[in-house]
Design goal:
This protein is mostly beta strands and about 100 residues long. It has a single domain, classed as YggU-like (Conserved Hypothetical Protein Mth637, Chain: A, 2-Layer Sandwich). Helix content is about 15%, strand content about 40%. Strands 1, 2, 3, 4, 5, 6 and 7 form a seven-stranded mixed sheet that branches. A hairpin with a 2-residue loop joins strand 1 and strand 2. It is globular, with a radius of gyration of 12 Å. The protein starts with a strand and ends with a strand.
């Protein structure tokens, strides 16, 4: 899993599967964090749920999580502000985390 430290936080790649049966973090695969989301990929619904799922899992405010690029793609770059790479370890464990 590739994490990039920035002055504002940490960036990492995410692969999103919209319209799944449940929202969950599936762990790392091919250098990206895999997410399954129940929202459809219309009107930013999947992007909003992506941000909510990451923020809830980390126990931080949604305002600290943003999509830096790939807003209309399944492959996105997400930034989490004000954290270190070590603080993101909960996202990258192998077992699934369900919302």
């Amino acid at each position: 899993m590739r994490l990039t430290a920035t002055p504002d936080g940490v960036c990492f790649g995410v692969h999103v599967q919209p319209r799944a049966s449940r929202a969950e973090i599936c762990g790392p695969k091919d250098g990206e964090l895999r997410l399954r989301l129940t929202s459809p990929p219309v009107e930013d619904a999947a992007n909003k749920q992506c941000v909510e799922l990451i923020a809830k899992t980390l126990g931080i405010a949604k305002s600290r999580v943003s999509i830096r690029s790939g807003g209309k793609s399944r492959h996105k770059v997400v930034q989490v502000a004000g954290v270190s790479p070590d603080a993101l370890a909960i996202l990258f464990r192998e077992e699934e985390t369900t919302l």
